[in-house]
Amino acid sequence: MGDTDKNSPIGVFDSGVGGLTVVKELMEQLPKERIIYYGDTARVPYGNKSRETVIRYSREIAGFLCEQNVKAIVVACNTASALALDELNKSVEVPIIGVVKPGARAAADVSKKGKIGVIATRATVNSGIYEAYLKGKKPEIEVFAKACPLFVPLVEEGLTDDPITDSIIHMYLDELLEKGIDSLVLGCTHYPLLKDSIARVVGENVTLVNPAFETARSFKMLLEEKGLLSEGKEGQESENRNMFYVSDSPDQFRSFAGNVLSIGIGAEDVKVKAFAG
């Protein structure tokens, strides 16, 4: 670790486009950093896959990012954070964090009634990881977790503000609201892209917790602690500053990324890197 160049890029990966919500927060909170992003668009979603498969995919992508000489990695996927982070910590030599712990910490801090909703993929919900972290912080907390498998395809198809989406949000969240939750963790990095629609449904008495924001804040502290903050210039929009890799559909990703990040991404900036299997 002593030889790591603090001006090397940071690596970020997700099962698809959702991790761009983390990239956006990283750009705002760490404007001097260069980012290499990998979106596994050929194999999205991870939420319905087995633990072994998610670990394999995550190892492949982390290995690829390390080949690009990144100085640290953000696992910008709740499912991979829940199922693969411990394994990655054993095999990856650079500092690495996930999105679950920062989001859980923030939810515990903002909840006044101690009734917290968590919406996520089936794999994240079944792992019980949010409940474990939340109860570890405050044992009296009640956690109501709900898998929302249709949210990811809605986001990937660009239906973030659509009557169909509102109906599906009601279908998933009405029962959590009946439990009296006062905070709701958007436990998948795709979900902040539905934040406005979700806020309309849950109302002003429920605080939405965006783990993407909290993760960027925690990652900044990690880089400071390790002495790895970049000394480069600000200006994330400069040409060839950030690199984006996907495993499929680069044109669709490019269009989506431009909307999420509010900056143009050139054709040459999105490269396809596929993995076998």
> Which oligomerization state do the chains in this entry correspond to?
single chain
Number of strands: 10
> Major sheet, described briefly?
6 strands, parallel
Structural class given helices, strands, pairing?
alpha/beta
Question: What do these coordinates show?
Answer:
With 277 residues, the protein is of the alpha/beta class. It has two domains: 10-98 and 213-272, Rossmann fold; 100-211, Rossmann fold (3-Layer(aba) Sandwich). The protein contains eleven helices and ten strands. It has helices spanning 20-29, 51-67, 78-91, 100-110, 122-127, 129-137, 151-156, 163-178, 195-202, 211-226, 250-261, and strands spanning 10-14, 35-39, 73-75, 96-98, 115-120, 142-147, 183-186, 207-209, 243-246, 270-272. The strands form two sheets. Strands 4-3-1-2-9-10 form a six-stranded parallel β-sheet, sandwiched between helices. The chain has a four-stranded parallel β-sheet with strand order 6-5-7-8, with helices on both faces. Helix 11 (250-261) links the parallel strand 9 (243-246) and strand 10 (270-272). Helix 2 (51-67) crosses helix 3 and helix 4 packs across helix 10 (211-226). The chain is globular and about 50 Å long. The model has no long low-confidence stretch (mean pLDDT 91).
Structure keywords:
single chain, Rossmann fold, 6-stranded parallel β-sheet, 277 residues, alpha/beta, 4-stranded parallel β-sheet
Gist of the model:
The protein is of the alpha/beta class and 277 residues long.
